[in-house]
Structure formats: structure tokens, C-alpha cells
Amino acid sequence: MRTNVVRAKVQWGETDAAGIVFYPNYFHWFDNAAHAFFRALGLPLADLMKQGIFTPILSAGSDFKAPLKYDDDITITSAITEVRNKSFRIEHTVRCGDVITGAGWEWRGWVIKESGQLRAVAIPDDVRCTMMGTQRS
């Protein structure tokens, strides 16, 4: 299973009136981490979009375990844990030091745009192998 790590610092605008990270920001971090992961795989999502391939989020969820505050240094570790025919799952773990502050997941589709319509298609074998870090046989 391939993983990717993104480092960030909690920004002032990501906190709420209580001074802790407002939960929707986790989903923003997850999305940024997914884009960074695909760049690291050599499959930048921006390049895929130019080819008419999109990876829309089909479902997502998260658990929040400990608060984060302004200026905390965080790491987001992402892993593609499952690849199906037309979709894949990315799991994310957010840490501040050794403390897991949140974990979440995204199911994304593999979609093409034809004649203005989106249609799910099979993930190519070479892309599937790249996602999972396996050799094509």
C-alpha cells in the first residue's frame, strides 16, 4: 500500500470562536492531501482533468479525536487502501506530533467527461498498479 505525507501549519482562519480547528477544514486538508498524493504518483489530477478524467468524491467521512489550535504543525498521511473497477478509497490520518487528531476517508470515482456528461469508467490497469504500488503482470 502506497502512502504520502503532507506537512502543514494550522492557520488562524481555520479555527473557530473557541480557538480550535473548525471541523470542515479536515475535509479541505484531505482534498489537498489527495491532490499531493496523485502528484507524487506522477498522476497530477490537474493533468488528468485536461484529458477529461475526473475523480469526484462519492462519499467521505471523518472522526475527530483531539483538538488542533492555531499554529500547530500537522502531518496528513494518506493511503489508497482499496481500488475497485471504477472507484477507489483514500484514507487520511492527521497528527500533531505523535497524537492522532483526526482520521477520515474518501471514496472517489474514476470518471470521464463526454459531450458534457460525466460517466464512470474502469480505472486503467497501469493506473490501478500505480495507485496500489504493485507491478503490472
Automatic annotation (TrEMBL):
It holds the Pfam family 4HBT_2. PANTHER family: 4-HYDROXYBENZOYL-COA THIOESTERASE FAMILY MEMBER, NOVEL THIOESTERASE SUPERFAMILY DOMAIN AND SAPOSIN A-TYPE DOMAIN CONTAINING PROTEIN (0610012H03RIK). This is Acyl-CoA thioester hydrolase. It is an enzyme of class 3 (hydrolase). InterPro entries: 4-hydroxybenzoyl-CoA_TE, HotDog_dom_sf. Its EC number is 3.1.2.-. The lineage of its organism: Bacteria, Bacillati, Bacillota, Bacilli, Bacillales. One of its GO terms (molecular function) is hydrolase activity. It comes from the Bacteria.
